[in-house]
Write a structure and sequence with these properties.
The complex is a heterodimer of chains A (about 375) and B (about 350). By secondary structure, chain A is an all-alpha fold. Chain A contains 13 helices and no strands. In chain A, helix 3 runs antiparallel to helix 12 and helix 8 packs antiparallel against helix 9. Classes of the chains: A mainly alpha (about 375), B alpha+beta (about 350).
């Protein structure tokens, strides 16, 4: 049954409006980073001691890497749960993940105040295994390498290195297993980063089971992003949408999402933290916004009939992505208050320069995705000429 | 081929990490750390403080920090909060007409802001590169700029808002009070305590400082008592131990007992801190966070050790995943043959 559609390069021009816009955004990012590295973080960011982490950490790394969970979520489906028919989705999802993670890894350097010491985090003697961030750093570094190995058959195929490809494929199962374990570890730990901040984080987001919440949400975001990317790629390249795959996958996504919501609400009830959701506060407003985004997919694509509509699948994917964004922004920024209720007058809203860097990072991902899919065998070969 | 059994097997392997993540494992629980017995610290008594800021100036000088201007004329060092260049500050509580000192109603009070040198510091637990280290003997939480990567996780983690980053520099460091540990070997103790004219900031072993704090709380407000200044000698200190530190020992003077709240701030907060505080005004109103006796570092490390202790769980899950993946991953060459059964 699993007659895998072989992948093939999409072809076509590399220079077009989309790549031009991306190129301009990347250039703007480089300009901002130039100023940042010469004059320091304060010169371009609105960071302060009340909000030491801004969007370069929360969006570029914490959210960026969650958005890069498509590869992990689909690979888990195909290779661990043995749902081989999803195979055509693996390569494109893995490619997006590869860039998402690689750039998250690079993006961290922009935010590190003493970036030339970054290697200390992986160096015995400096490394502190008690630190949650140490765990995140080790796992993300390892995962980036594992993903390049997982994805390398694409390059070997294109360059005609058949022998090397066969050798690699014999041991690929181990890297696939590792590539499933590592994201589980660091996606959960990205949530655990909040725990040491203690009562500075609003009880709506401060819980000892935060690793489980971040892991479950990362998996649903992974499927959500595959829905999103498949729809966008199909429309941009004028290809058929793989509805026969997206439809059943969206059911699995809703299943994981239901588990997430049960754990999320159950935890709030057990800890008695739900009161905070009814306080007349910004935090409460954003909490309901977040919950709304996570519940919306059931309304949008809850019935089999609705799931036959690609537009609904796309919207469900977007809603899950929004929920994932909000869960992370709420925990790290909206629900974070270093004064513990004592007003220290700290405020944070990202500066234009900070936003330009974040946009530039995402533009770089899109640009690389376009170049690779047009020149390398990533997307499934189109059966019918368009 | 997809069978129900394969699916269940996958669920088993994939779900192990998730399932075990929520299982409480007593063996990995990391209790809140306690103060080392010889730990050094400060006792700040807000009722004795006159707000002269001599400690702020002395701290600037000894740590070679530049002045920070907030006024137009730029004549005086006027920081409004601690920062990457200001490690110690006396802040003020104000209410109404501000007529009475140490009164919550229509009064004012001072409060020292500097590192509390926690028994179980969040910054030490958070730091991924061991740039924040708690000395096992003195308990001083020290910072090593040469190790630091500038991630500012310590800034985010500290509930007292103490480690601060120098955003104005391309090579910015973290700035925080290190209890003048660089002066200890010369026999000098914390500059803030050294210069304090009223003994509002007192240096010593936390154990002795806690006893002194409790002595004051036991006295009747308005009563006259001897208030030590500078360094509080160790209980039963001998000449050899006393010779380690410079400065006059007997600097005590007679003062009236303040109208204290019956609470030594820092005795139990977050597992206890080595800097202790006394006040007549509610500590939260004076800007000190309300913290539970359990430290967040303990919660965080318990989660980490439960999941990753000895790498047992990751290796077990990896073994399960590898076993499943081995059966399910078919190299493309073989797969083509297998496609025609």
């Amino acid at each position: 049954m699993s007659a895998h559609h072989p992948a093939a390069p999409v072809g076509g021009k590399l220079f077009n409006t989309a790549t031009l816009v991306c190129g301009v955004l990347v250039a703007a990012m480089i300009a901002v980073l130039f100023v940042r590295f010469i004059f320091g973080l304060g010169a371009v960011t609105n960071l302060n001691d009340g909000y030491p982490w801004g969007i370069w950490v929360v969006v570029d790394v914490v959210i960026g890497s969650a958005f890069a969970c498509g590869g992990f979520a689909v690979a888990m489906l195909v290779y661990i749960f043995n749902r081989g028919h999803y195979h055509p989705l693996v390569r494109p999802a893995l490619l997006a993940s590869l860039f998402g993670y690689t750039l998250a890894g690079v993006g961290v350097l922009f935010d590190l105040g003493r970036w030339w010491n970054f290697w200390h985090i992986l160096w015995p003697g400096y490394a502190n295994p008690n630190s949650v961030m140490f765990e995140v750093a080790v796992c993300i570094s390892a995962y980036i390498i594992v993903m390049w190995i997982e994805f390398s058959p694409v390059f070997l195929e294109q360059w005609g290195l058949k022998v090397q490809k066969q050798k690699l494929e014999k041991v690929l199962f181990f890297f696939i297993a590792l590539g499933t374990l590592l994201p589980m570890m660091h996606q959960s730990s990205l949530g655990t980063l909040l725990v040491v901040m203690g009562p500075q984080v609003n009880p709506l987001w401060q819980t000892p089971i935060v690793p489980l919440l971040y892991l479950l949400s990362a998996i649903t975001i992974g499927y959500g992003i595959v829905l999103f990317e498949s729809c966008v790629a199909a429309s941009a390249y004028r290809r058929e949408i793989e509805m026969h795959l997206l439809q059943p996958m969206s059911r699995i996504m809703l299943g994981v999402l239901a588990v997430y919501l049960a754990v999320r609400v159950g935890d709030l009830l057990v800890r008695g933290a739900l009161d905070h959701a009814f306080a007349p506060s910004l935090e409460a407003f954003f909490f309901w916004l977040e919950m709304g985004c996570f519940v919306a997919p059931f309304a949008i694509a809850g019935t089999p009939g609705a799931r036959r509509n690609p537009a609904r699948l796309f919207l469900a994917g977007v809603a899950i992505m929004m929920g994932g964004i909000l869960l992370r922004i709420n925990g790290f920024l909206i629900g974070y208050d270093t004064g513990l209720g004592v007003d220290h007058g700290w405020n944070y809203f990202p500066s234009i320069a900070e936003i330009l860097v974040t946009l530039g990072m995402f533009a770089l991902e899109v640009l690389a995705y376009i170049i690779i899919t047009r020149r390398f065998p990533v997307l499934p070969r189109e059966e019918v000429a368009h | 081929m997809t069978t129900r059994r394969d699916f269940l097997r996958g669920c088993l392997a994939g779900g192990t990490a998730v399932a075990t993540a929520v299982l409480p494992e007593a063996a990995c629980a990391r209790d809140t750390l306690q103060r080392p017995p010889e730990g050094l610290g400060l006792l700040y008594d807000a009722t004795l403080c006159v707000g002269c800021q001599a400690c702020v100036a002395a701290c600037k000088q000894t740590n070679e920090n530049p002045a920070e201007f907030t006024a137009v004329d730029k004549l005086w060092d006027t920081p409004l909060d601690t920062s990457g260049h200001t490690f110690n500050l006396i802040k003020m509580y104000r209410h109404g007409t501000m007529e009475t000192k140490d009164s919550e109603l229509n009064g004012f009070s001072f409060m020292k802001t500097s590192c509390m040198h926690c028994a179980d510091p969040s910054c030490v637990s958070a730091c991924p590169v061991s740039a924040m280290i708690k000395d096992p003997v003195t308990g001083v939480v020290g910072y090593d700029a040469d190790a630091c990567i500038g991630c500012r996780y310590c800034v985010a983690a500290c509930p007292f808002g103490i480690p601060k980053y120098q955003y104005d520099s391309p090579t910015g460091k973290i700035g925080k009070c290190e209890l003048c540990r660089h002066r200890h070997q010369d026999g000098h103790y914390s500059a803030c305590a050294e210069v304090c004219p009223t003994g509002a900031t007192l240096f010593g072993r936390t154990e002795d400082l806690l006893a002194e704090a409790k002595r004051r709380l036991a006295l009747k407000p308005g009563e006259w008592t001897t208030i030590p200044r500078g360094r509080l000698p160790k209980q039963g200190e001998n000449a050899e131990e006393a010779a380690k530190w410079k400065g006059l020992v007997d600097q005590g003077y007679q003062a009236q007992v303040g109208n204290y709240l019956q609470h030594v701030y820092g005795e139990t907060e977050y597992g206890g801190t080595q800097v202790l505080k006394l006040s007549a005004v509610n500590f939260q109103k004076a800007g000190q966070p309300d913290l539970p006796p359990k430290s967040s570092a303990a919660t965080s490390e318990t989660i980490q050790h439960t999941l990753y202790g000895g790498l047992i769980m990751p290796i077990a899950v990896l073994a399960g995943l590898t076993w499943v993946a081995r059966r399910n991953v078919v190299p493309e060459a073989e797969e083509k043959k297998g496609d025609q059964p």
